[in-house]
């Protein structure tokens, strides 16, 4: 089920909200858990079964850690397993069971085919004329990358003593399957939301801000991301093209992925607020960044902080010398790229960002962009990010190379290039492209806009929601880009 669909907007959401506010406290959590499984299993019930299996393992692991700690309850609540408790071999085994189960499910559905294809390619390189390993094309459960990281944070946070485990099964199912952030984030870490699973406030102000977030997210998705997607899809679908058309299509894709993903995050934050939860900010005007380092503090913040706290720091972070720091940065970004998809294109995309992070760390205050006006840094960073998007968007490495050739006028333009370009040059798309640029570089972001809902801002949000709803009727369903991850 997609947020920007009729069934969600006019049936699922009103029913869930009405039932939620009609029920007493604890029953509300159970309602969210059940409705989240309905939401997730709507397109394919088997996906809900897979998620239920993984969630059950994590829940049991949490209970086992609690039992092994031998700590008594505190004020009727399970205790935090603090540093005074020695982590035994059995507790480490329980933690490993949770991590292996989650990563095993992710690997089985997402990377099995990729590994088989590469083994066969390696075999062909050494003269094998037949497939060494059969390539299985498994349907990837939507959002498995997101809820896998979320689930892993539960066992890790409980083991580390960062949060208390959950005793009620419905509470854990609510956390794991929470439909607002289930399929495309933000990736909510357990320690950040544990207390809200038990106690949360419901106020009119919070609900109103949630509606505003959801409305702005709808506007981003329907009014800007989808038209930008038309330009980008047309540009990337054709062969070699004129350099100006290639840049037009690439920047349109940069706009599309921002509005699509940040729009989903806005809607998730808004839905959570309507249900009394407060989620973290996932985007903070990332294209206004003056460096790649700053970009990753503003783009997909929940993923970058997850990778920092659960991977980069355990690897040693910056505590073991410059060379180890660069290696850790590169390892994290390569794995971050692979997290997005089982393709060498995503690995290259991660490598570009990892390399830039290393270069910027090496230069430090001597970075030449620091001595130039801020706008130059913003433009250079946006250029690097756009070039890396080529590998992110292209379906194959060959297509990425061809597209890069078009960007720099190095590819032979195909006879059909002008015909293809005519599909995305109408004034409607050019005008929306200009509007998207103004919104990205010249306007405050959703968090700033909704911080104080004055009358003019309320009118703007209401008009955005009304227009997005009207335009939604004219569009076919366009799943969010990050659903594929």
Automatic annotation (TrEMBL):
<feature type="transmembrane region" description="Helical">
    <location>
        <begin position="404"/>
        <end position="422"/>
    </location>
</feature>
<dbReference type="InterPro" id="IPR051085">
    <property type="entry name" value="MB_O-acyltransferase"/>
</dbReference>
<keyword id="KW-0472">Membrane</keyword>
<feature type="transmembrane region" description="Helical">
    <location>
        <begin position="131"/>
        <end position="149"/>
    </location>
</feature>
<dbReference type="InterPro" id="IPR028362">
    <property type="entry name" value="AlgI"/>
</dbReference>
<feature type="transmembrane region" description="Helical">
    <location>
        <begin position="42"/>
        <end position="66"/>
    </location>
</feature>
<feature type="transmembrane region" description="Helical">
    <location>
        <begin position="93"/>
        <end position="111"/>
    </location>
</feature>
<feature type="transmembrane region" description="Helical">
    <location>
        <begin position="428"/>
        <end position="447"/>
    </location>
</feature>
<keyword id="KW-1003">Cell membrane</keyword>
<keyword id="KW-0812">Transmembrane</keyword>
<feature type="transmembrane region" description="Helical">
    <location>
        <begin position="261"/>
        <end position="280"/>
    </location>
</feature>
<feature type="transmembrane region" description="Helical">
    <location>
        <begin position="329"/>
        <end position="352"/>
    </location>
</feature>
<feature type="transmembrane region" description="Helical">
    <location>
        <begin position="372"/>
        <end position="392"/>
    </location>
</feature>
<keyword id="KW-1133">Transmembrane helix</keyword>
<dbReference type="Pfam" id="PF03062">
    <property type="entry name" value="MBOAT"/>
</dbReference>
<comment type="similarity">
    <text>Belongs to the membrane-bound acyltransferase family.</text>
</comment>
<keyword id="KW-0012">Acyltransferase</keyword>
<dbReference type="InterPro" id="IPR024194">
    <property type="entry name" value="Ac/AlaTfrase_AlgI/DltB"/>
</dbReference>
<protein>
    <submittedName>
        <fullName>MBOAT family protein</fullName>
    </submittedName>
</protein>
<keyword id="KW-0808">Transferase</keyword>
<dbReference type="InterPro" id="IPR004299">
    <property type="entry name" value="MBOAT_fam"/>
</dbReference>
<feature type="transmembrane region" description="Helical">
    <location>
        <begin position="459"/>
        <end position="483"/>
    </location>
</feature>
């Amino acid at each position: 089920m997609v947020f920007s669909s009729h069934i969600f907007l006019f049936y699922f959401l009103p029913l869930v909200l009405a039932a939620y506010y009609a029920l007493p406290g604890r029953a509300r959590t159970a309602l969210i858990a059940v409705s989240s499984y309905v939401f997730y299993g709507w397109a394919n019930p088997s996906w809900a079964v897979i998620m239920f299996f993984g969630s059950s393992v994590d829940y049991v692991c949490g209970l086992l850690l609690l039992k092994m700690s031998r700590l008594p309850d505190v004020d009727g609540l399970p205790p935090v397993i603090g540093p005074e408790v020695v982590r035994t071999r059995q507790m480490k085994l329980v933690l490993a069971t949770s991590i292996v189960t989650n990563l095993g499910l992710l690997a089985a559905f997402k990377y099995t085919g990729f590994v088989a294809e590469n083994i066969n390619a390696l075999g062909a390189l050494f003269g094998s004329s037949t497939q060494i390993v059969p390539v299985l094309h498994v349907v990837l459960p939507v959002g498995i990358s997101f809820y896998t990281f979320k689930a892993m944070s539960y066992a890790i946070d409980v083991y580390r003593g960062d949060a208390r485990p959950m005793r009620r099964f419905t509470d854990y199912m609510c956390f794991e399957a929470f439909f607002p952030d289930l399929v495309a984030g933000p990736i909510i870490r357990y320690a950040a939301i544990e207390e809200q699973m038990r106690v949360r406030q419901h106020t009119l102000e919070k609900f109103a801000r949630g509606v505003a977030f959801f409305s702005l997210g709808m506007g981003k998705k329907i009014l800007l991301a989808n038209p930008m997607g038309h330009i980008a899809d047309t540009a990337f679908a054709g062969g070699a093209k004129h350099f100006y058309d290639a840049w037009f299509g690439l920047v349109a894709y940069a706009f599309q992925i921002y509005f699509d993903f940040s729009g989903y995050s806005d809607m998730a934050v808004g839905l959570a607020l309507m249900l009394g939860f407060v989620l973290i900010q996932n985007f903070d005007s990332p294209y206004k960044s003056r460096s790649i380092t700053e970009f990753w503090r503003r783009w997909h913040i929940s993923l970058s902080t997850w990778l920092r706290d659960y991977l980069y720091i355990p690897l040693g972070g910056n505590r073991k010398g410059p060379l180890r720091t660069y290696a850790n940065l590169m390892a994290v970004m390569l794995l971050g790229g692979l997290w997005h998809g089982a393709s060498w294109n995503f690995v290259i995309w991660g490598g570009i960002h990892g390399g830039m992070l290393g270069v910027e760390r090496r230069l430090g205050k001597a970075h030449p962009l620091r001595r130039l006006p801020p706008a130059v840094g913003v433009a250079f960073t946006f250029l690097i990010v756009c070039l890396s998007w080529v590998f992110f968007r292209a379906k194959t490495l060959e297509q990425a190379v061809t597209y890069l050739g078009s960007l720099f006028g190095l590819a032979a333009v195909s006879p059909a290039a002008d015909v293809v370009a005519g599909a995305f040059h109408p004034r409607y798309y050019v005008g929306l492209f200009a509007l998207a640029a103004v919104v990205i570089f010249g306007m405050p972001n959703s968090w700033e806009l909704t911080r104080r809902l004055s009358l003019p801002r309320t009118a703007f949000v209401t008009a955005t929601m009304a227009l997005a709803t009207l335009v939604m009727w004219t569009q076919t369903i366009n799943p969010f880009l990050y659903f594929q991850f």
